[in-house]
């Protein structure tokens, strides 16, 4: 091999190594990037009709329910899971506090938690969990296929990730957006889970007739 050939070979190897490192970095950050892109851009780019849709799930009393069962009332929908250490409890506390603040008008709104962890979140587990946040909070679970379908309809990102600290050995990564659906089932607005309860109460109060 000549010096030039050697140099070219070395250059080619550097380029290949660069691609490999770049690919690994992209894989490592992709879930969080996707989550952030979605949280920031969702409603600016996604048409209203594209969020929400039909679903069939099981509520925390074990009853099979569909989206049709919620017609005629607003829904405040959050996707999460009962073993979530902080994001889900925060979101659910804010939802409950906002409903409290708008008083009797809140009766027009059904707060809903849809699990992204159907394996652990049985109806019994959901029942224990929802009652600690709000007396009317509805917990919905289902088969993995049913959960996949409803998360797709609501453009929710979720992923099972290893977690040695959990006794089950895993936790769930998930987007944390609170959706408001109208009495006709159409998307009305959304909040980040970090929203302040007063701000949420204000917006909800204006949406309600
Ligand atoms: Ni969570």
Percent of residues in helices comes to 40-55%
Count every beta strand, where a strand is a DSSP E run of 2 or more residues: 9
Please identify the structural class as seen in this structure: alpha+beta
- Tell me the domain tally: 2
The major sheet is characterized as: 7 strands, mixed
As a whole number of angstroms, the C-alpha radius of gyration is 22 Å
How do the strands of the widest beta sheet line up side by side?
2-1-5-4-3-8-9
CATH class of the largest domain: Alpha Beta
CATH-defined fold name of the largest domain: Glutaredoxin
CATH homologous superfamily title of the largest domain:
Glutaredoxin
**Assembly level:** single chain
Which ligands, by name, code or SMILES, are bound? Answer: nickel (II) ion
CATH architecture of the largest domain: 3-Layer(aba) Sandwich
Globally, the shape reads: globular
Strand content: 15-25%
What is the compact description of this entry?
The chain has 209 residues and is of the alpha+beta class.
What does it look like?
This protein has 5 helices and 9 strands, in the order H-E-E-E-H-E-H-E-H-E-E-E-E-H. It is of the alpha+beta class. The protein folds into 2 domains: 3-46; 56-207, Glutaredoxin (3-Layer(aba) Sandwich), CATH 3.40.30.10. The strands form 2 sheets. It has a 7-stranded mixed β-sheet. Strand 8 (177-181) and strand 9 form a beta hairpin. The protein binds nickel (II) ion. Residues 80-81, 84, 87-88, 174 line the site of nickel (II) ion.
């Amino acid at each position: 091999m000549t010096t030039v050939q050697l140099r070219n070979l070395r250059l080619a190897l550097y380029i290949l190594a660069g691609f490999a490192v770049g690919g690994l970095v992209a894989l490592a950050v992709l879930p969080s990037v996707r989550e952030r892109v979605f949280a920031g851009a969702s409603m600016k780019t996604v048409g209203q009709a594209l969020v929400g849709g039909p679903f069939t799930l099981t509520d925390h009393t074990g009853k099979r329910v569909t989206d049709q069962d919620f017609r005629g009332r607003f829904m405040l929908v959050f996707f999460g899971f009962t073993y979530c250490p902080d994001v889900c409890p925060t979101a659910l506390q804010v939802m409950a506090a906002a409903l409290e603040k708008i008083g009797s008008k809140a009766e027009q709104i059904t707060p809903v938690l849809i699990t992204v962890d159907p394996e652990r979140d049985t109806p019994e587990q959901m029942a224990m969990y929802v009652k600690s946040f709000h007396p009317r909070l509805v917990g919905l679970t289902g088969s993995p296929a049913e959960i996949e379908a409803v998360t797709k309809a609501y453009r929710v990102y979720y992923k099972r990730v290893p977690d040695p600290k959990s006794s089950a050995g895993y936790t769930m990564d998930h987007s944390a957006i609170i959706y408001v659906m109208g009495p006709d089932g159409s998307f009305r607005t959304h909040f980040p889970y970090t929203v302040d309860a007063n701000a949420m109460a204000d917006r909800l109060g204006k949406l309600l007739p």
